[in-house]
Amino acid sequence: MPSMLRPKLVVHDAPAAIAFYEKAFDARVVEKYTAGDTVVMASMQLLGGFISLKDEDDTDRSPARLGGVPVIVDVVCEDPDAVAGRAVAAGAEIVFEVADQPYGARGGRVRDPFGHEWLLQTQPSMTPEEIQRAIDEMMG
Q1: Angle at CA 134, nearest 5°, toward 119 and 104?
Q2: Which domains does the chain have, with CATH numbers?
Q3: For residue 116, which of 79, 56, 64, 54 has the smallest C-alpha distance?
Q4: First to last CA, the chain
Q5: CB count, 10 Å around CB of 89?
Q6: For residue 131, what are the contacts with CB-CB under 8 A and spacing of at least 6?
Q7: Contact 7/73 with Cβ under 8 angstroms?
Q8: Burial environment of residue 20 by CB neighbours within 10 A (0 to 12, 13 to 18, 19 or more)
């Protein structure tokens, strides 16, 4: 099997998180392992890739226990408005409305009910040099 990058999200209430990702992002559970009522690993296919997730414990803490998110899931998609709309309908909240961005992409950000943030955006239409100029102008 070739190498694969698969982010692992730590959540409070993995069964509810799985149900949310299925509804919000059309996720499909590929495999799931439990120890009693605790999900120790669930692999899901969604948005053209894979993630895994697990219930929080004393070693691995969810964003709720950390007091914020240390990682943003960056999703390049053709229709961020539709993906964000589905996520909000499933229970996510808007962090940044989907809008045309100065770096040539259309995108926004949602926070799922488990504290993870998802940047949903199209591929930028500008060259790397144009993107850097746009960022420089934005930052003054």
Answers
A1: 50
A2: 8-139 (3.10.180.10)
A3: 64
A4: 47
A5: 10
A6: 103, 104, 124
A7: yes
A8: buried
Q: Are 117 and 110 in contact (CB under 8 A)?
A: yes
Question: pLDDT of the chain along its 140 residues, tens only?
Answer: 677 778 999 999 999 999 999 999 999 999 999 999 999 999 999 999 999 999 999 999 999 899 888 789 999 999 999 999 999 999 999 999 999 998 899 999 999 999 999 999 999 999 999 998 988 888 87
- Three-state SS at 59: coil
Q: Which amino acid type is present at position 115?
A: G
Give me 92's structure tokens. Answer: 């996510």
Tally the residues of the chain: 140
**Cβ neighbour number for residue 115 with a 10 Å cutoff:** 18
CA 130/CA 19 separation, integer angstroms: 40
* Structure tokens belonging to residue 76: 């390049």
The pTM of this model reads 0.87
